[in-house]
Amino acid sequence: MPVAVPLLPMTIAHGLHVADRPLAVMIGNFDGVHRGHQAMVERTLAAARERGLGAAALTFEPHPRELFAAATAPARITPLREKLRLLTELGLDHIHVARFTRAFAALTPEAFVDQMLVKTLRARWLMVGADFCFGAKRAGTVARLRSLANERGIELEVLDDVLEGAERISSSVVRTALDAGDLVRARILLGRPFQISGRVVHGQKLGRTLGFPTANIHLKYNRPPVFGIFAVRVHGAGATPLDAVASLGFRPTVTRERRASLEVFIFDFQGNLYDRRLDIEFVAKLRDEETYDGLDALKAAIARDCTNALAVLRPDAARPMAGTLSSTAALGAASAPTTLASPHATQGPDASHG
C-alpha cells in the first residue's frame, strides 16, 4: 500500500545542500530528458510513493566529458536550465546538481556513496541505467554500487532498456538523429518536439536591410546539436505558436566569427521581442548552411527558405514554386493570409541565413 507523502515545494539544490527528507534518487546526466529518462522518472515517482519518500534526481554540471575532453564532448541536447525545467515538469520533488570538478571526479566509489548519496541526499532507494559508472576513473560499476548500497541499507534498481524498435533510446541516439536532420525521429525518441530556448538579444541588424528582420536568440553553448536552415514554430512571442523560418549556424556569408547564431524570421509578426525568452520548436530541416557570393544571393536564398518553410508549416495553403518570386512576393503570395513583416519591424536584430 503506498505511503502518503506530504506535498512540499519542489527544490533545486547544489553542492552539499542536505535534503530535507529521505529520498528516492535517480542518477544520471539526463541530457535531452528523453523517453528513457522519462521512464526512470516514472519509476522513481512510483518507488517514492510506495515508500513514503521524496522523489529526486541527481545530475552533474558540467557534463564529465566537458571537463576532461572539451574538444570532443558531445553537443548538449538540453542546456542545464532546460533540463531542470523538463525534470521539474515531470513531477520530481527535488533535483540536486552536483558540480562536476576534478576533485569530485577523484572521489572513490565509497566516498561518492557516503558523501553524496547517504549524507547529502539521504537516499533510501536508487535507480540507475545499466551502463552507469561512477567514482575515480569510472571504477564504480552497477555491481559495485549494489554492494555499497546493500551495506548501507539502500535499495537499488536498474532501469530496463527503453527501446524504439530494436534500438535502445539514449542521448547518443538522439544526437545522431539531430545531427542527421531527422527531426521526426528525434521527436519520437524525445517524446516531444526538439526545441531550443533563449533570450532575444541585439545583433548586427543586417536582416532589416534585407527585408527579413529576425529575432536573434542567445545560445549558451557554441556547439548546438543541429545546424542548418529550419521550418520552426516560435512559442512565447504571441498567444499561440507562430510559424517561422530559422537559421542556426555560423553565418559564413557575413562573418568569419566561429560563434553559432540562432536567428528566426517570424511570419505575420510585428513587435519588439528584445529580452523576451522564446522557445523555438524545430519542425523540419530545409537545407544545410551555405556560403553565398553576396547579399543579393543571400536574400534570394532566404526568400526560397521562407517559401519552403511555409510549405512545411502550412501545407494546405496555396503557394508558388520555391525560388520563382522575389523575396517580398514569395512571402506575400505563399499563403493568402501571410504578409511580409515590415523591414522596420522590431522582431529582433540580424537576419542573415548565410
Q: Overall mean pLDDT score?
A: 85
Report Rg: 23 Å
Q: What would CATH call the class of the largest domain?
A: Alpha Beta
Strand order of the largest sheet: 1-4-3-2-5-6
> Which ranges are low-confidence, i.e. pLDDT below 50, for 5 or more consecutive residues?
1-9, 320-346, 348-354
Q: How many helices does DSSP assign?
A: 11
SSE succession:
EEHEHHEHHEHEEEHHEHEEEEEHH
How does this structure look, described?
There is one protein chain. This protein has 354 residues and is an alpha/beta fold. The protein has two domains: 11-164, Rossmann fold (3-Layer(aba) Sandwich), CATH 3.40.50; 193-333, Riboflavin kinase-like (Elongation Factor Tu (Ef-tu), domain 3), CATH 2.40.30.30. The chain is built from eleven helices and 14 strands. A six-stranded parallel beta sheet has the order 1-4-3-2-5-6, with helices on both faces. The longest helix is centred in the last third of the chain and has 19 residues, at 295-313. The protein is elongated and about 70 Å long. The protein starts with 10 loop residues before the first strand and ends in a 21-residue tail after the last helix. The relative contact order is 0.12. Residues 1-9, 320-346 and 348-354 have low confidence and may be disordered.
